[in-house]
Each structure stands twice: as C-alpha cells, then as structure tokens.
Amino acid sequence: MSNTMPIDNNQQGTLEPTSEKNATDQLNKISSAVQALKDAVILINDDDGLEWWNQAAEDLLLLQVTDKGQSIFDFISAPEFRQYYQSTTIPNDGVHIESWRDAKRYLKCEITPFGDEKLLIIYDVTRLHNLEEMRRDFVGNVSHELRTPLTVMMGYLENFSHQPDMPPHWRRGFELMTQQTARMNRIVNDLLLLSRIEIEEAHELTYIDMTKLLTHVYDDAQAYNQSYGHTIHLQIDTYDGLQGSEMYLNSALSNLVINAIKYTPKGGDISISWTKTSEGCKFAVEDNGIGIASQHIERLTERFYRIDKGRSRATGGTGLGLAIVKHVLYQHEAKLQIDSVEGVGSTFSMVFPAAYVRSAPTS
Ligand code: ADP
Fold first, then answer.
1. Whole-model pTM above 0.85?
2. Greatest extent of the chain over all pairs of C-alpha atoms, in Å
3. What is the CATH number of domain 128-199?
4. pLDDT per residue over 241-299, tens digit each?
5. Which CATH superfamily is domain 206-358 in?
6. What are the Histidine kinase domain coordinates in residue numbering (predicted)?
7. DSSP letters of 180-221?
8. Which residue among 191, 300, 336, 341 is best mutated to probe the pocket of ligand 1, counting the most ligand atoms within 8 A of its Cβ?
9. Is the C-beta atom of 259 inside 6 A of ligand 1?
C-alpha cells in the first residue's frame, strides 16, 4: 500500500473541477495515472524524507508504508546521486547511476523542485546506456583498426613522392593522396582521443603547473603561426595551477589556440590569458577573426559540426576539436564560454571551479 499524494488543485493545469465530487474524481484519476507510471515517482519533503511514492518506486526501492519520513539517502546511497541532489542549482539533465539491485541496469534520477518539496523521478535507461556504450566501442575499435593501414599507406606515399623519376602527371595525384591520408590520420587520432576520454571515467589527476603548460602551448602556437603572421600575446596573471589531466588539458588548450589562429585572417591579434576569477580560474583565447553567427554557437561542440566545411578542411580541421574540448572540460567540471560576433572576433574561455585550482607548491 502506498501513501496518498497531497495534490494542490492549483497544480492541475487544464483540469477545472466544477463540483466537489468532480474534483475528487479528477484527483483520483491523477493519482491512479501516477501510480500506473512505469517510472518511479517519489515526493520528498524539505527534510529529505520520503513523503509519497508510486508503485514503481515501491518495487524499485522495496519501500514499505513504515518508510514514510525516512531519508532518501537510506535508499539511494550512490555518491553521484547525493552530489546531484545537494547541488544548489540542480542540473536539468539529471544524474545516471548504476542500479544497486542489478549492476547491469542503469537508472537516471531527475529532480524537480516542487515548492519546499522535491519530486524525484527515476527512469530505467539501461537500453540507452548500452547503445551509448556500443557506439563508443564501435568508434574506438574502428579508429584503432584503421591506424595500422593508414600508417603503412602514409609511409609508402611519402617514399614514392620523393622519387626523382616520378612522371610529372602523377606528382599531383601523389600530393593529393598524401594530403588526404594525413587528414584521415588526424581524424582517426582525434576519434581515438575522444573515445579514450569518454571511456576513462576516473582519470588520474595530478598537479599541473599552468605557467609551464601555457608557455608550451604558446611556443607550439608560434610555430603553427608562421604562415599566418598573427601577433600572439600571452598574459599569465596568476601562478595558480590546476589539479587535472595534463595530456588532455594540453590538447584542449591547444585546440582553442589553433582554432583562433586558423579562423583569423592573416596578420590578426590573438590574446591568450590565464586569470583568477571569483569562481576559480579562467583560461581565455581572444581573436579578431571571422567570428561566429549566434545560431551556430550552441552546436559548435557537436562532433563534425562545422560552419564552413570547406574552410575547416582547407585549414586541416577534423571537426572534432571542440568536441574534445567539451569532454576534457567535463572531466574537470569546468565550463566552456563562447562569446563571438561575426566579422569581429571570438573569445573562447574555460572556467575552472575553485575545487580544481591549486596554488603553486612551495619548494
Ligand atoms: P575544426 O577542426 O573544423 O576547426 P572544431 O571542432 O575545432 O573543428 O571547431 C568547430 C567549428 O567551430 C569550426 O569548423 C569553425 O567553424 C568554428 N570555430 C571554432 N573556433 C573558431 C574561432 N576562433 N573563430 C571562428 N570560428 C571558429
């Protein structure tokens, strides 16, 4: 037997009871509908205690009538759930946890604040989770398998291209084959990096000396910049470093800097900065390049999303750089901010939370 849900008539939207009996009928109808849902629905009071639940929740959490008022954490102990539940601004997309009754099942918990109370809905997302996993494995395996044939092709093409007796009408063809295999190789490497970041749930975090890392990124940028002739400034306002994954961060920072170089007409100005903020620390790359129209900004971190495919290809882009940036930032609980005006320029910033900021060790 479940507890009865206290329903406020004002919450009923289009249902407008005309009499007391009518109202009771409608209330019963709503209650039965929630009871019949396959997803678990739980109403939690402001003390985190169970207030009301439907049949699916009763089956999932093995609840009994006497559990009314018990803390939700007595039934769902996953640390990810507690973190999600207690975050001040509850993220809209919920949290995925492994089922505590069957490790092969995956659940998604979603909380909607409801006055002083909270409505928790738990969905079974096992099928979605397995499909995601299959997609990740497939992309990872295909990329891995393509690596060796590509390396062999690149080696032979390189050798043939340098043959002095190569007929001139073949030379152009060889040049194009060399360019395209190198491009394919970059795509495969980026796909492999993406799958590695996605699969590694717990990556090793170490202290990163940001001054050192930024100087390294800046030196690489200067080398890449030779054919563009931009002026690149590096401004480091704090010695604070980060607790993070150095290899992945290096890749994310470089992607933003290389993009600024690629998408700025020759002789532009690019500023790279590392500053302390009220939230933590911020890495920013500002350019005075081609900019981005606002309707594209939301989708830029999708794999292979490119505003101008021709331009991206011409500059050697894989269309995966910002997807890599997004995943690396997710690992560090950091946010990506994109401010851009078409024809004026763009600023891409990574905002790292204070929890990941570390002051330089005293030697
Ligand atoms: P790509 O390999 O094509 O550069 P990314 O994922 O790094 O792929 O970037 C996605 C798209 O975002 C690019 O194709 C480009 O259209 C746009 N973009 C990224 N950075 C900038 C920038 N600094 N200025 C203008 N457009 C940019």
1. no
2. 97
3. 1.10.287.130
4. 999 999 999 999 999 999 999 999 999 999 999 999 999 999 999 999 999 999 999 99
5. Histidine kinase-like ATPase, C-terminal domain (3.30.565.10)
6. 141-356
7. HHHHHHHHHHHHHHHHHHHH-SSPPPEEE-HHHHHHHHHHHH
8. 300
9. yes
